[in-house]
C-alpha cells in the first residue's frame, strides 16, 4: 500500500539510501567519523561527487533540475502554491558542514492529478539560484535499464532517522512483471520504475530518501536522472525492490511546469 511512501515524515518504508539492510550504519552513517565505513554494501559519497544532490528540510531528498528549481517527490509536499517554509541544503555531503548552501523556497508545484498513486513528482522554486551543476532528466526510456546509482541522507534501518553524511550505492533494474509480483495492483507500471536486489535485498533507499534521484550515466558519460525515490515495502527487504517515479514518462510535464515557475 502507498502508506509506505518513503518520506522521512512518514513512519513506514519510504526513501532513504539504506544500502544495507543489516547494518546499523548505512545511509550516510550517523555521527561516526569520516574514516568509519558507513554501511555494508554502500560507501560514503565524496565531496563534490554528486553536486546536484539536495536535502530538503521536511525530511526528503531532491535534485537540482535547474539552479533555482529542485525536483522531488509529490508526496513530500502538500499541494501547490506559494511556500516559503522549505529550506534546501546543497553543496555538501556532510549536513553539518559550515560550507553548506541553504536557500529557502518560494513556490511549490505538485504534479497535477497526484492522488497518492503514481505521478509522484514535484518542483520547488528557490529564492535564489544555487551555483552548482544540475542533473538532466531522461526524456525517453532509453536509460531505464541496467544499473542505477542512488544516494541520500535517509535512514540506515527501517524506522531510523536522518543521517549526517550522504551515502551512495548501485541497484539493478527490476522488470515490471517481477515488481508486480511483490506489489500487485499498487504498482503503476506506466509511471513507475523498480530497482533493487530482489532475491537477497540488502541495498535500497529508505525513510528520508523520498524525492531523491535515481540516476546513471548516459551514452555521453553525463549523469542523467531516470527515477525519483517514491515508495516500497520496508527497506532493502528481499522480494521487495524500491519503487521510483519513471522520470521519462513525465519529462514533458516537468519541463512545462518548470517554465511556469
From TrEMBL:
Pfam families, sorted: Trypsin
SMART domains: Tryp_SPc
CDD domains: Tryp_SPc
Any GO molecular function: serine-type endopeptidase activity
Stretch forming the signal peptide: 1-31
Record PANTHER family: ACROSIN-RELATED, HYALIN
Protein name per UniProt: Trypsin
Gene source species: Streptomyces agglomeratus
Amino acid at each position: 500500500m502507498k502508506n509506505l511512501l518513503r518520506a522521512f515524515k512518514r513512519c513506514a518504508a519510504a526513501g532513504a539510501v539504506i544500502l544495507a539492510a543489516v547494518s546499523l550504519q548505512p545511509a550516510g552513517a550517523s555521527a561516526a567519523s569520516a574514516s568509519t565505513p558507513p554501511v555494508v554494501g554502500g560507501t560514503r559519497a565524496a565531496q563534490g561527487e554528486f553536486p546536484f544532490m539536495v536535502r530538503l528540510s521536511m525530511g526528503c531528498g531532491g535534485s537540482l533540475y535547474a539552479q533555482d528549481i529542485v525536483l522531488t517527490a509529490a508526496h513530500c509536499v502538500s499541494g501547490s502554491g506559494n511556500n516559503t517554509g522549505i529550506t534546501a541544503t546543497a553543496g555538501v555531503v556532510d549536513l553539518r558542514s559550515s560550507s553548506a548552501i541553504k536557500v529557502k523556497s518560494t513556490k511549490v508545484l505538485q504534479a497535477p492529478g497526484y492522488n497518492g498513486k503514481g505521478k509522484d513528482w514535484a518542483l520547488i522554486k528557490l529564492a535564489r539560484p544555487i551555483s552548482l551543476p544540475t542533473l538532466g532528466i531522461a526524456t525517453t526510456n532509453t536509460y531505464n535499464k541496467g544499473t542505477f546509482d542512488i544516494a541520500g541522507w535517509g535512514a540506515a534501518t527501517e524506522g531510523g532517522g536522518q543521517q549526517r553524511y550522504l551515502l551512495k550505492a548501485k541497484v539493478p533494474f527490476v522488470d515490471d512483471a517481477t515488481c508486480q509480483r511483490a506489489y500487485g495492483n499498487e504498482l503503476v507500471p506506466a509511471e513507475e520504475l523498480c530497482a533493487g536486489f530482489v532475491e537477497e535485498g540488502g541495498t535500497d533507499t529508505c525513510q528520508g530518501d523520498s524525492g531523491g534521484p535515481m540516476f546513471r550515466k548516459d551514452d555521453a558519460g553525463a549523469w542523467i536522472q531516470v527515477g525519483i525515490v517514491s515508495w516500497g515495502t520496508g527497506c532493502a527487504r528481499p522480494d521487495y525492490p524500491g519503487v521510483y517515479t519513471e522520470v521519462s514518462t513525465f519529462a514533458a510535464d516537468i519541463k512545462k511546469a518548470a517554465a511556469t515557475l
